Amino acid sequence: MDETRAAKPASAPAAKPSGAAYRNLALATLGFTLTFWAWDLVAPLGSDFKDRLNLSSFEQSLLVAVPVIVGSLGRVPVGALTDRYGARKMFPLVSALTIIPVLLIIPAKHSFGAMLAVGFLLGLGGTTFAIGIPLVNSWFPPARRGFALGVFGMGMGGVALSGYFTPRIAKHGENLPFIIVAIALAAFAVLAALLITDRPDRPIPTSSLGTRLGQAGHLRVTWELSALYAIGFGGIVAFGVYLPTYLKTWYDLSPTDAGTKAAGFALVTVIFRPIGGWLSDRIHPATVTTVALAVVALFAVMQAFDPTLNPMGTICFLFMAAGLGTASGSVFALVSQVTPQPQVGSVTGIVGAVGGLGGFLPPLVMGAIYSAKDSYSIGFMLLSDLALAGCVYAYGRMRNAKAE
User: Fold this and answer.
1) Which of the 8 DSSP states describes residue 252?
2) Buried b (16+ CB within 10 A) or exposed e, 298-317
3) Residue 34 is inside which H or E element, if any?
4) Regarding beta strands 4-5 and 204-205, do their DSSP bridges make them parallel or antiparallel, or are they unpaired?
5) Which residues pair with 204 in a beta bridge?
6) Which of the residues in the chain have pLDDT under 50?
7) CA 395, CA 297: separation in Å to the nearest integer?
8) Are 199 and 138 in contact (CB under 8 A)?
9) With 0-12 CB in 10 A as exposed, 13-18 as middle and 19+ as buried, what is 135?
10) Which of 151, 161, 320, 304 is closest to 234 using CA atoms?
11) Closest CA to 141 of 24, 29, 22, 15
């Protein structure tokens, strides 16, 4: 375990969260939302970039994927840096630095190569997840921590906000979305620098970044939690990326109708994430994860039989969204229980990275299966198998997991 030093002897958080705890939760959630909006600026305009740059479908997919892949992987070092330097420094710094690639989209949008480079830098916005989790985790007592982490997790709704507002704002000026998001990030960076505070008794690791990442990587629970989060949050990302295509292809919906239904799916996942955390404060988070993934497995099987969209298909997708959102919240409630406090940021970074990356294989698999079999049923059965495996593992192993 890391050696730590503290400004004063560590003490258990009070049973009732302080006003500072709620202030930090609100600011972290706001920052998470804004940076996730920035992180997802390219995807809603993907078809525009495809036409402007005459891209192939693969090139368009690559353009959309680069920020997400980089943002997912970047959570690993950012989480470890947060353990060391605290969210008070990291949140305003990362928010301010994200302004640079957001504005660079404007001159880069006429070149595919330049857009890939900017997309790489834009991935920075996706790393704030690994800053907020340890911040919120440190301020809230165990009895309230699950719900607080779930509320913070609602910031992933920034992706849904981007999907809805970015193309609509762009109709009033092609550069306007980037300017508005840059201004919002700048305002938040100032607000964060003034108002975000780390817990005074926060344990601060003194070992090197590489050592701490190595120690987090050697914890068995890191990879167990990563696998569960790859199913829960990875499923959310996968549906966010591929659901509009699926609805247009299989149910012959218009792009607008498909986008609206996909936004509804995203909204349900955002709502159920804090519910998963709230339930985890009252029931063991492994049990909540078990039930949530069981729901996903059941309705994925039902969707594999290709029901009509109204009402059965819609019901299946809404229940899968609720299950995935709940599981995403409960897994991070589990992180707070089984991870040594000084390593929460490092473990969060790894778990968050694997969860984000877990969303990009399923769309490729679904597309390949449809191309080969002219059906999506096998893909939904695979989702069901994964969810069922996670369900069994969460119940059989994670109920008894302890901080190492």
Assistant:
1) -
2) bbbbbbbeeeebeeebeebb
3) helix 19-39
4) antiparallel
5) 5
6) 1-14
7) 15
8) yes
9) buried
10) 320
11) 15
Cα of first residue to Cα of last residue in the chain, in angstroms, is: 9
Give the C-alpha separation, 236 to 157, whole Å. 11
Count of other CB atoms within 10 angstroms of residue 398: 24
- Nearest by Cα to 276 from 264, 293, 292: 292
Tokens representing 390?
Answer: 């996670």
Please check whether residue 347 is in contact with residue 220, taking contact to mean a CB–CB distance below 8 angstroms. no
Tell me the two tokens of residue 68.
């997400």
Q: Give the per-residue pLDDT at 96.
A: 96
Model pLDDT, residue 6:
39
Q: Is 109 helix (H, G, I), strand (E, B) or coil?
A: coil
Among residues 116, 46, 67, which one has the least CA distance to residue 357? 67
**Calpha distance 125→78 (Å, rounded):** 11
Alpha carbons 49 and 56: distance in angstroms, whole number: 11
User: Which positions ≥6 away from 394 have C-beta within 8 Å?
Assistant: 228, 286, 287, 289, 290, 293
Cα–Cα distance, 317 to 302 (Å, whole number): 10
Cβ(322)–Cβ(191) under 8 Å?
no
Asked if 232 and 292 touch (Cβ cutoff 8 Å), the reply is yes
Peptide bond into 311 cis (omega under 30): yes
Task: Go through the chain and tell me how many residues it has.
Answer: 404
pTM score, whole prediction: 0.76
Farthest CA pair distance, the chain: 63
Q: Are 39 and 71 in contact (CB under 8 A)?
A: yes
How high is the pLDDT of residue 364? 65
Mean pLDDT of the chain: 84
Place of tokens 């406090």: 341
The pair of structure tokens assigned to 368 is 């390949």
Q: CA-CA-CA-CA torsion for 237, 154, 263, 306, nearest 10 degrees?
A: 50
Q: CA–CA separation, 27 vs 191, rounded Å?
A: 8
Note whether 344 and 137 are within 8 A (CB): yes
Q: Could you give the angle at the alpha carbon of 160 between the alpha carbons of 297 and 183, nearest 5°?
A: 150
| Continuous segment of H or E residues that includes residue 205 | strand 204-205
